[in-house]
Amino acid sequence: MEMDRMKEVLGTHEPDGRDFDVTPLVPIVEDIIKRATFLGGGAQDQDYADTWEDTAIRRGSIDMKELTYAINKTINEIICNCSSGGDEHFVAMALCRSLSRYAWEDKVAIALAAFAVSYGKFWLVAQLLTTNPLAKSVAVIRELPEIIEHTEALKRKFEAVSNLSKAMLNVTSCIINLKELPTEYIGQSNEVVFLTAHVPTAVYWTLRSIATCSFILNLTALGPEYVDSAAEAWDLNSLAHKLAKIKEGLEDQTAIIKKEIEKRRQNDAYNALVELFKMPNTDSTKILSAVINVKEDQLPLYDGTNNKRASLDILRQKHVLLLISELHIPQEELSILHQFYTESRQQPTRLDKQYKVVWLPVVDTFSNATDEQFELVQNSMPWYSVHPIMLERAFIRFIKDVKSFDKTPQLLALHPRGNLSGYNARDMMWVWGNLAFPFTEEREKELWMEATLIELLADSIHQNLLLWADQNRYICLYGGADIEGIRRLTTIMRSVANTARIPLEMLYVGGKNPKESVRKNNSIIQAENLSHILPDLIKIQIFWMRLEIMLKSWGQHGMFVKSDLIQHVGKIICYDKDGEGWALIARGWHEMAKGIDKEVYQCLSKFNEWKDKVVYPDGFVIALDEKLRELHTPHHCNRLILPESSGHIPEKVSCAECGRPMESFFMYRCCTD
Q: Its domain of life (predicted)?
């Protein structure tokens, strides 16, 4: 039966293609239905009614010229057909035929507006008949006074009509909202099935409900006994329940369609962004405009130095580093970037070497807490930042899918002509600082070809380290957690240096995960004047993180990196992973020797046995290195651990101890330390 009924409904649908904007009708009808529910409620109801604002006026005016004729015609259709003796289905089908040339959403909006006019007239007269002579005269003709006398008896029915009216309004709103869906994404099979099957059904049952309510309004003129027998309240409530289920189905299906549309839209935006990054652009702001959702006349950038907002134009033709991170950024990451960013600003004569930094925080969900955390981090940054809500979703997908962003911060170099570097400038910054400018692969290769180990290890973790190297002093970098081993090593080093009359500087660099033991060691070393220290544990973390980043960089550019450099770096990392104390001794930028602290102590304790073989000034480190190698038996186990994210894995690596090719294995490790 339902199928035959819908076939009949579809048979009346012959739209002529005209487009009407019926959306503004909804708030007007809503206002009528709300205001038309009060009758004799006293001052309390009147006060409540007075709180309603003129919603339709606030939402903008509506041009009724094209719709007035259709609405008036439909009012007459409803009155005539309700008085002709037909049932609700008969009236609903009459409305379908009368409105056949309109689209589905226009049909139901016009019909509901026509009903609202009649509904509003009924209640307007009922509310004014005791205070307005004109209303009283109209009410007498319609026999409304007799209806009003039976208000309590009919209250349940009037409430049912009110509830059904609201249900009709809800369904109509859902149908009209479908019109707002972007047509360029509609047309695939699932959407077509939904639009052709569910919407006509929703329209029919709304029209049928309009007919049912209209019967009630028409029969009031015949007296309360007819109202009481024409339609029981439970029939009205049953219709309201059916419309509620239809509304629920419409909303569920619409949500599915919207989700699919948004998915397609995001795919289109993502593909367009990927293509944009592939193209050489004449202006970097074109890239930034695709990354940041900027509305007209909006200033999306916050300048952390001047504490004011700025437009994207300030970045035009500039070298820009995009800092991609979560809201929580490790302190060591901020410390490194802050250091080099500040240094770049202290060279006003080298404007060509300066760059801008823009923080683009990635946040999955927003709340007051995330806003507070964002502002807290933002206020600690001297560079530009963008609120996370302004980032395009396509860009977030791009950095996750293409740039493999997880949680570790990234620095993406955007060059003045809009070219986005394929490499993470964050690693270049950690290893080379501002020497890596303009943060290209070619520049990094040049730096690796020119690098020395002491230069890589020293960097700027200690204010005097580079000065010591320039002065050709002997430098001992050492680490470990055993304070007794530290005392033995520093004591023998100082004793041998005095005997050999060589200028020596020692610096304690702790371990990769500086804990309370390292803090205590720092205090003891400083109190006993054993050596220099890095008092800031962040500096210690930076030292060890740089070593691991060097390994990662070697994995990416292995063929351009001197293998002996990376072997030394890998060996130091292995010392730390094994929990061994260790020492590296170098003369300025030149020769060096390294080993675990026990071996270094063993060799130095026998200095008197080999001191006569030392040819100064360069012979001391060379001789020490030979003695350390003599301690290595043919049977040894040496290893080099590369980070999993290295990318390039060299085919051949020589052992740092004996020079023979090393075997390669996969290693899986769980370390809760």
A: Eukaryota
